[in-house]
Design a protein that fits this description.
By secondary structure, this protein is of the alpha/beta class. Among the domains are: about 160 residues, Rossmann fold; about 90 residues, 2-Layer Sandwich (GMP Synthetase, Chain A, domain 3), CATH 3.30.300. Helix content is about 30%, strand content about 25%. This is Long-chain-fatty-acid--CoA ligase.
């Protein structure tokens, strides 16, 4: 059976000298990447780790991140990518929760961890990517000193656990979604079919790799196909991103709505717009405003495909087909081996066109939440993953996400979806970003409140916003309160953090 490591092994055999990763001035071939991951795996075994042990990765984007991931899987361990924006105490919770034994990090993040390191009882060793050996820590270069490059584990199967992805945890502590080799391989293979990825493709990777959307689409997908990963340290490195587009001739650009919003609304150099090799833009992680799609496709003369997924589904569930009918306003069709349905509160399937909760079934669905059987039982019912997203299907099977189930408002007992209001706001030419939440109201229960970022150099009043909304929305859906802000709070993947607005 295919495992995640087998995907790398096969590409190393087919394209041994081909560049797998380009990072700044470094180039790592497929053969080198495969050998480095095995050397690191033997180094981890020498530290006393064994099959099933957890290896945490808490770092910015760099080649060592990818090497550590494949090294953990190569010896039969579990990789645990950790959100690089977390505090030391938040990292400690994850380390303690799943008993991480080795943590790979860098000197910058070591400062975050220092106050809590001694309290992490399961942790045996910290490996520092850019540091020398110290009495308490090991340099990553030392981990690679083993000359052994043979496979360190021979009894891996597709059912073995590969990765724990800790969800954002909008309420309470984050939950560790357990993904098997089979979950990740099936999702990568199905994504390969949709995007028709070929070895000559070059993927631009600038989103943080701790996010499952990034790792599957920007690392596993190109590795399966034998493509090249053009790696950027951070989404903030816009100059490096521009240079990668122009000089590295990237062909697949994977981004999030906030990034596309910037590209759509800023004047870009003509060389960036017309002299690029991008054949496909891919968007995920958050809803993509409709006007942005048109602006990007007009500017770059390439297709922008919006998809949908969640960590618990490895993560890709659906995508608008690159070749075929793309329906703006939808997140496309389910992947080949993925089934979807819309259900009511009692999990009964609803007919086409009716709004309910999106449920997902397939080989990409997680094994459950680590050490949380009750949460798992509430989330996976009869093999169907309840996503928490309100959606509907059309006659052709295209999925439209209406909103998050938890974000729905009840205005005088009537359902109101913030995303519908946001879609109307984004139609106004002077609005760059917006977010709508519910606030308590004595007579109506809840009413919508809109937070708006106005385009630079433009003017917009509350009166203008209300007049615009009245032309498109029923009275009970109109924002009761409007607040203008210079920017909106975002997380590491540039998703607007509504909980910080409440």
């Amino acid at each position: 059976m295919m495992t995640v490591g087998k995907m790398l092994e096969e590409s190393a055999q087919r394209f041994p000298r081909k560049c797998a990763i380009k990072f700044q001035k470094r180039k790592i071939s497929y053969r080198e990447l495969h050998e480095l991951s095995h050397r690191a795996a033997h180094g981890l075994l020498a530290l006393g780790l064994s099959k099933g042990d957890r290896v945490g990765i808490f770092s910015d984007n760099c080649p060592e991140y990818i090497i550590s991931y494949f090294a953990a899987l190569a010896f039969g361990g579990v990789a645990v990518p950790i959100n690089s924006f977390l505090t030391g105490n938040e990292v400690k919770y994850i380390v303690d929760n799943c008993s991480i034994k080795v943590l790979v990090t860098s000197k910058r993040f070591l400062r975050t961890l220092q106050p809590v390191l001694q309290q992490m009882e399961s942790l045996k060793r910290v490996i520092v990517i850019d540091g020398p050996d110290q009495s308490e820590h090991m340099a990553f270069a030392t981990l690679l000193q083993s000359s052994r490059t043979e496979p360190p584990c021979h009894d891996l199967s597709s059912d073995d656990l590969a990765v724990f992805i800790y969800t954002s945890g909008t309420t309470g502590h984050p939950k560790g979604a357990m993904l098997s080799h089979g979950n990740l391989v099936s999702n990568t293979e199905d994504s390969l079919e949709v995007f028709n990825v070929v070895p000559k493709d070059k993927f631009l990777l600038f989103l943080p790799m701790f996010h499952s959307f990034t790792f599957t689409t920007c690392v596993l997908l190109p590795i399966l196909s034998g493509s090249t990963i053009v790696l950027i340290g951070s989404v903030k490195s816009m100059d490096a991103i521009r240079k990668a587009i122009i000089f590295d001739r990237v062909t697949v650009f994977v981004g999030v709505p906030a990034v596309y919003n910037v590209l759509a609304n800023k004047d870009l150099p003509k060389i960036l717009r017309y002299i690029n090799a991008i054949r496909a833009f891919v968007s995920g992680s958050a809803p993509l405003p409709g006007p942005v799609i048109g602006k990007i496709e007009k500017k770059f003369r390439s297709a922008l495909c919006e998809g949908y997924g969640l960590s618990e589904a490895s993560p890709v569930v659906a995508v608008n087909p690159l070749f075929g009918t793309r329906k703006p306003g939808t997140v496309g069709l389910p992947l080949r081996r993925v089934q979807v349905k819309i259900v009511d509160a009692n999990h009964n399937e609803l007919p086409v066109g009716e709004v309910g909760e999106l449920a997902v079934k397939g080989p990409n669905v997680m094994q459950g939440y680590y050490n949380m059987p009750e949460e798992t039982a509430k989330t996976i019912v009869d093999g169907w993953l309840l996503t928490g997203d309100v959606a509907k299907l059309d006659e052709e099977g295209y999925i439209s996400i209406v909103d998050r189930k938890k974000e729905m408002l009840l205005v005088r007992g009537v359902n109101v979806y913030p995303r519908e209001i946001e879609a109307v706001l984004y139609q106004h030419p002077n609005i760059v970003e917006c977010a709508v939440i519910g606030v308590p109201d004595e007579t109506k229960g809840e009413v919508p409140k809109a937070f708006i970022v106005v385009r630079d150099g433009e003017a917009l009043s509350e009166k203008d916003v209300r007049a615009h909304c009245k032309r498109h929305l029923a009275g009970y859906k109109l924002p009761r309160f409007i607040e203008f802000r210079p920017s909106l709070p975002k997380n590491a993947t540039q998703k607007i953090m509504k909980r910080n607005l409440r």
